[in-house]
Write a structure and sequence with these properties.
Distance between the termini of chain B: 37 Å
Number of domains of chain A: 1
Radius of gyration of chain B: 19 Å
Helix content of chain A: over 70%
Shape of chain A: globular
Number of strands of chain A: 0
Order of helices and strands of chain B: EEEEEHEEEHHHEHEHEEH
Strand content of chain A: under 5%
Number of helices of chain B: 7
Largest sheet of chain B: 6 strands, mixed
CATH superfamily of chain A: MetI-like
Shape of chain B: globular
Order of helices and strands of chain A: HHHHHHHHHH
CATH class of chain A: Mainly Alpha
CATH topology of chain A: MetI-like fold
Radius of gyration of chain A: 22 Å
Strand content of chain B: 25-35%
Oligomer: heterodimer
């Protein structure tokens, strides 16, 4: 991708937010809507700056980031191993897959009361539900990637006498990588989505979600919007970073376009 | 001396649930791919298998390569029954099957890696092969950066890297356009004529068979067995010009004569078996 193409793509992606902000400011300036219902972009930016300078907003952001990343890493490592396991072994698939697919239908939010009763109101259950949210997409995509390795690749490994371990490391994993990468990107999105549930439903004093909660209690719309925009931007930034790293490392162009 | 001896090789496949096929008027859920395949292949010869679709040519290749076991009968490679893939065989697939995460050079190294060949030696062998196929400038390219013809050259180079005694080629040029196909046939024959490798080559193209082969084995419609073996009496070394000679046309005529009835028979059978799709 050359510079002008990249610039075009960046401009394209910020076009809609800019139009929405202009429209938002216009609605506000025209007096169509009370600022208690919808604050102006100006108010939101002011609240954002005040939060950073006076209310240690960065501390809350870092706490939420730690929470998301801990859950995400636990989720992708365990989900990857599980997906690999049921992908490699037909017996394991028969034993685990039906139960896994049944449990998968239950929203993770539904588990929160049970998890809180078991583990109490603390950081552990928050990380667990984020990890669970990351677990599903990575497990499913790793499984699919392992199962869809072209037959010829496996036959070649067999022609050249590769043992099982080498078959896995040299053929199956590289071949499954595009699917695994899709799983990682999806898992990251799910982790960010679940962060809000973790912070709103398992009460705490620190984190971006708690700022949203305080905004609601104090009827401070600007603060709620600051929280929402922060989560959206951070989630978007992290997904973009993962994609950029993946594409830079992917010199053989094995990753599908959509990730 | 015969390097490969196939004795009464039979292979049955169970069809998927709900599929059935007519064998001599009897409806069955099994399909006889090979029905008593006998074939002796001489060391260093280029043998081409032609036959109608579904006549079990590829199945036979898989059995010789140790990728699939016969239902009955046996294939000997150097007097030993084949029961697993052997270090002596190399394989080239129709769809190249290059690893997209490896460069051309690294793809060629693949077969050598499991043989304990050290890195410098692997690179040396791979570079020699790339140069043989005129691809020296492309060693760092990934498969997506290569044309179909280049990809198949790399795949053949990968198969040749381990210096196999027997090279199994399953319709390797079928996915290429006609011009590229002829160029690759010329290259393959030029390179093969400089080796003592035995080649078993499967194709649907009679021209390709006649141009490449020492002998063309015509396989019957399913269940596949050898119908006739035709010696191709064209001189070697061969080059592209031979295709327009009258000797070439005569050989072509002989092969088509043996094949025609089988192709017609196979087409009749597909018509009679609506429950089975290829």
């Amino acid at each position: 991708m050359n510079i002008s193409k990249r610039t075009k793509s960046v401009l394209g992606s910020i076009l809609l937010p800019v139009v929405l902000i202009i429209l938002w400011q216009y609605i506000f300036s025209a007096g169509y809507i009370a600022s208690a219902i919808l604050p102006s972009p100006h108010q939101v930016i002011k609240t954002f700056i005040i939060h950073f300078t006076e209310n240690e907003y960065s501390f809350h952001i870092i706490s939420s980031l730690k929470r998301v990343l801990s859950g995400f890493f636990i989720g992708i490592v365990s989900g990857f191993l599980f997906g690999l396991f049921i992908g490699l072994s037909r017996t394991a698939e028969k034993i685990f897959s039906p139960s896994f697919n049944a449990v998968r239908q239950i929203s993770i939010i539904g588990w929160i009361p049970l998890i809180v009763m078991w583990f109490g109101v603390n950081e552990f259950p928050r990380i667990i539900i984020i990890a669970a949210a990351a677990f599903y997409p990575i497990a499913l995509n790793t499984f699919a990637g392992v199962r869809n390795v072209p037959r010829e690749y496996v036959e070649l490994a067999s022609v050249y006498g590769y043992n099982r371990l080498k078959l896995i490391t040299r053929i199956i994993l590289p071949s499954a990588l595009p699917s695994i990468a899709t799983g990682i990107t999806l898992a990251l999105g799910m982790s960010w989505a679940m962060l809000m549930a973790a912070e709103l439903f398992i009460p705490t004093n620190i984190g971006i979600g708690t700022r949203i909660q305080i905004g609601r209690e104090k009827f401070n719309m600007a603060l709620i919007l600051v929280g929402i925009i922060t989560v959206g931007s951070l989630g978007f930034a992290m997904t973009s970073i993962v994609e950029i790293i993946a594409h830079a490392a992917d010199r053989g162009r094995i990753l599908r376009k959509e990730i | 001396m015969d390097i490969i001896v196939a004795k009464d090789v039979r292979k049955k496949f169970k069809l998927k649930h709900g599929q059935q096929v007519k064998n001599n008027g009897i409806i069955s859920n099994e399909i006889d791919a090979l029905g008593g395949f006998d074939l002796n292949i001489k060391k260093g010869e280029f043998l081409v298998l032609v036959g109608p679709s579904g006549s079990g040519k590829s199945v036979f290749l898989d059995i010789v390569g140790g990728l699939s076991a016969p239902t009955s009968g046996v294939v000997y490679l150097d007097n030993k029954p084949v029961d697993a893939p052997s270090e002596k065989t190399g394989y080239v697939f129709q769809q190249y099957a290059l690893f997209p995460w490896r460069t051309a050079l690294s793809n060629i190294e693949f077969g050598l890696e499991s043989r304990g060949v050290v890195k410098e030696e692997r690179i040396k062998i791979a570079r020699e092969l790339l140069s043989l196929f005129g691809l020296s400038d492309f060693e760092d390219r990934y498969p997506y950066q290569l044309s179909g013809g280049m990809q198949q050259r790399v795949a053949i180079a990968r198969a040749l890297a381990t210096k196999p005694e027997v090279l199994l080629m399953d319709e390797p040029f079928a996915a290429l356009d006609a011009q590229t196909r002829e160029i690759l046939q010329n290259e393959l024959i030029r390179i093969w004529e400089g080796t003592d490798t035995t080649v078993i080559f499967v194709t649907h193209s009679i021209d390709e068979a006649v141009f490449l082969a020492d002998r063309v084995a015509v396989v019957t419609a399913r269940p596949g067995k050898i119908k006739e073996i035709i010696e191709i009496d064209l001189p070697r070394p061969r080059n592209g010009d031979i295709r327009s000679s009258s000797e070439f046309a005569a050989n072509r005529h002989k092969v088509w004569g043996a094949l025609k009835a089988e192709v017609n028979k196979a087409q009749q059978e597909w018509k009679l078996a609506p429950g089975f799709t290829d």
